[in-house]
Amino acid sequence: MIIYAWFNRSFRPIRAKKMSLTTLLHMAGILWFVGNIPSNGHVKLVGVFSYCKLWIVWLRVFFCFMYAAVLILRFFALDRVFNQHKSFKGWTSVLCISVVISVNVSFCLTTQLIGDDLTVSSMEWLEVCNGTQGFRIACIAFQWVLWLGVAVLIYRLRNIQSSFNEFRESLAIFVVAIITLTETTVMNIAFKNYPLMMPHRIEKTMVDTLCANVMVWLILGHPVYMCLFHRRKYETMWLEKLTKDGHKHAYEVSSAGQGHSTAYAKMEDESAFQNTQLNFGTMDVMASAFYGNQRSYYGGDLIVDESTLRSGEMFQNPDTLPIALRNNLHIHRPVLNVPSMFATGYPDPQGEGRRVI
Questions:
Q1: DSSP 8-state assignment for residue 268
Q2: Which backbone phi and psi does 4 adopt, to 5 degrees?
Q3: What is the DSSP letter of 291?
Q4: Whose CA is closest to 256, among 241, 238, 243, 269?
Q5: Hey, what's the torsion of the CAs at 175, 165, 251, 270, to 10 degrees?
Q6: Whether the model pTM is above 0.85
Q7: Nearest CA among 236, 238, 244, 280 for reference residue 260
Q8: Which residues pair with residue 355 across a beta bridge?
Q9: Dist CA 332 CA 195 (whole Å)
């Protein structure tokens, strides 16, 4: 699914899922699974493979922590953009990623420097690894802290705009995580030697693997399914929601189209556009149509001065008014590659004296 999503990342609902972070999440899940194989006693650890801290600390524990950390990064990015109204790119993203990695590396490095008798050691006669109870409690407590951070961010994301609202998916992810974390806590407290018990070690590995994969499916499953079976219809609906939320410029969406963009769809600085809007209800704006110091208006052969405009005589002949003030026009949406009034001039009057532009 990850590969399909990358090949179809031009599909905007998929692109909105931050494929880079989602891919890192999936890779963390894979390496978490790799660490689970020797840590849970599925293979015999002999020779160089009996170095338990490599499997338990730097694969299983580190990437289990990184899995939650990547989700924290992902939710924090949404919170920063939609709640704090700030960007999440450049030095901000680099700093956040560095902090998350540094915290996890610090925990694992501290464990590495502490003696094996207090953390993880090899039981050579059984060819398995074993962690002390203190080490297990420390790891589980740190996981609860990470997922508490995830819960806070999910709560903050509950009211963001509909097109980027992932509250239901995020809530489902959190429920899956809590179930998995509860199972891990009970397993390590009630069955301290579960790697020696085949049913329990299989259960533990399966629960962790399902957790890691279900979360990725919850993030990408819906947009990937829609891309496969309802691509055009779903993208159009998604872009309509995006436009209603006021974020159409982020994806170069034209409000005139049906989910398609044009060369005129995006304006980086909207202030320039807003400053050009005129209030046609004021006399100063109407007077701005006059020429030079005389402030006269040229309407064909008729010259109207400012006093005529202020007296209201000008409004008796609609053809002498600026286009924006006329009430005898049908204004059609401009279409690219079609000759406009600028090339052909005004057309002849239509029925009832109305013109079509």
A1: S
A2: -60, -40
A3: B
A4: 243
A5: -140
A6: no
A7: 236
A8: 329
A9: 74
| Helices and strands per DSSP (H, E), number in the chain | 14, 6
**Is 322 a residue whose pLDDT tops 70?**
no
**Residues 286, 278 contacting (CB under 8 angstroms):** no
Q: Tokens for 269?
A: 């600085």
Nearest to 116 by CA among 197, 40, 64, 57: 57
CA nearest 34: which of 190, 226, 209? 209
pLDDT in tens, 91-139: 888 999 999 999 999 999 999 999 888 999 888 888 889 899 999 999 9
Cβ atoms within 10 A of the Cβ of 111, count? Answer: 21
C-beta pairs of 55-58 under 8 Å, 24+ apart in sequence = 55/129, 56/120, 56/129, 56/131, 57/108, 57/111, 57/112, 57/119, 57/120, 58/108, 58/112
Residue-wise DSSP of 70-104: HHHHHHHHHHHHHTS-----THHHHHHHHHHHHHH
User: What contacts 194, CB < 8 A, 6 or more positions away?
Assistant: 40, 187, 188, 200, 201, 204
**DSSP notation for 217-239:** HHHHHHHHHHHHHSHHHHHHHHH
Burial-class residue 131 by CB neighbours within 10 Å (0-12, 13-18, 19+).
buried
User: Which residues does residue 131 pair with via DSSP β-bridges, in sequence order?
Assistant: 120
C-beta separation of 59 from 34 below 8 A: yes
